[in-house]
Amino acid sequence: MFDSIPIIDVGPLVRKKGDEDFREDPEVRNVVHQLDLACRNVGFFYVSGHGIPLELCQAVLDVGHEFFSQPESQKLRIAMSSSTGFRGYQKLGENVTKGLPDQHEAIDYFKEFESTKVALRSENPLVGLNQWPDSVSKFRPLVQEYLEMLIELARTIMRGIALALGGPKDLFEGERAGDPFWILRVIGYPPISNLSCLSNPNGEEVGCGDHTDYGLLTLVNQDLDITALQVKTQDGKYIWVDPIPGTFVVNIGDMLTIWTNGLYQSTLHRVMNNDSKYRVSVPFFYEPNFDARVEPFSFLQDSTAAESKRYTPVVYGDHVINKVLNNFG
Ligand SMILES: NC(=[NH2+])NCCC[C@H](N)C(=O)O
Ligand SMILES: O=C(O)CCC(=O)C(=O)O
Ligand SMILES: [Fe+2]
After folding, report:
1. Which stretch of DSSP H or E encloses residue 238?
2. CATH superfamily of this structure's domain 7-325
3. Quick check: 232 and 210 in contact, CB under 8 A?
């Protein structure tokens, strides 16, 4: 169905998001049409014209490189465990995909829950505080500034996707994603050729195994000098996602598949760093409200599948908790 990843200039969405005639604006309609095609046919697209400074994106990658180049003892000061709510640093091989260890190290951040939601706290294994390295100066303020901008950008793109589906522009606001959960990962991939002990019995080492993302929309900021991300096409072939300066690689997540009853499918992808250099990427995951009940939109069911083929409803928080517990055994 597809052999390349489209590039979408979302400038009009960003500039006109407050306009009263947003829906009817010809430039907006054009972007919405491109989003619809990309989400139906590929599940992946590049986004340009987003307004986030290239210097900020680069600075976030740079502090990632600086963090990972430290000795292990320094990195383990912010180690992730069940007692940190699975927030913090994970060593190479600690993250598992489909039963096999991934050849990446990472720091995982999740939106912090408000302490007032007592019931949520006691049962939710993701409750905890994010862990910031004090050994890399500016790490925390840079990443926090970046996060705020990406939350806003993802919200804007979701508004375009809402129109692409033929819904109201606030389709993903309120109880669905008006109080969005989010995940940010700062990931480091050593060159595969440098790995001293091979852990995969099949002999094929991967930086991150085949998977789909869990929520609504992922925005990936990646090193510009290495191609390592691969998207799986319907016939099982992989296509490389070359970095393009000034763009994010965007892909849709599992919750959008359910809400659209399969019209927009989350696409399998993986990471292979065959380069001789160390690669850093920073994916940001924009998710539904943690307690959102996700079920196919009634206005889409006729056009998508028969009642008997409906996607099973889930609570987003249950889905992500299951995934995280699986990733770390
Ligand atoms: N939050 C993520 N998207 N993590 C990376 C995906 C790989 C993860 N181990 C999985 O099985 O899904
Ligand atoms: O490193 C990348 O380019 C993508 C990582 C990824 O797919 C993920 O963490 O979900
Ligand atoms: Fe992913």
Report:
1. strand 238-240
2. B-lactam Antibiotic, Isopenicillin N Synthase; Chain (2.60.120.330)
3. yes
User: Residues 50, 5, 41, 189: is their CA dihedral positive or negative?
Assistant: negative
pTM score? 0.96
Q: How many CA atoms lie within 13 A of 60 on its CB side?
A: 27
ipTM associated with this complex = 0.98
Cβ of 97 below 6 Å from ligand 1? yes
56-114 pLDDT per residue, tens: 999 999 999 999 999 999 999 999 999 999 999 999 999 999 999 999 999 999 999 98
The closest-lying atom of ligand 1 relative to the alpha carbon of residue 208 is 7
Q: Is residue 107 within 6 Å of ligand 2 at its C-beta?
A: no
Does ligand 2 come within 6 angstroms of the Cβ of 213?
yes
- What distance in Å separates the CA atoms of residue 329 and residue 321, rounded to the nearest whole number? 12
* Ligand 1 touching residue 254 (CB < 6 A): no
**Structure tokens, 323:** 């995934």
Q: Residue whose CA is closest, atom 10 of ligand 2?
A: 213
% helix, strand, coil for the chain, step of 5: 35, 20, 45
Tally the C-alpha atoms within 13 A of residue 204's C-alpha that lie toward its C-beta.
7
CA–chain centroid gap for 323, Å, is 14
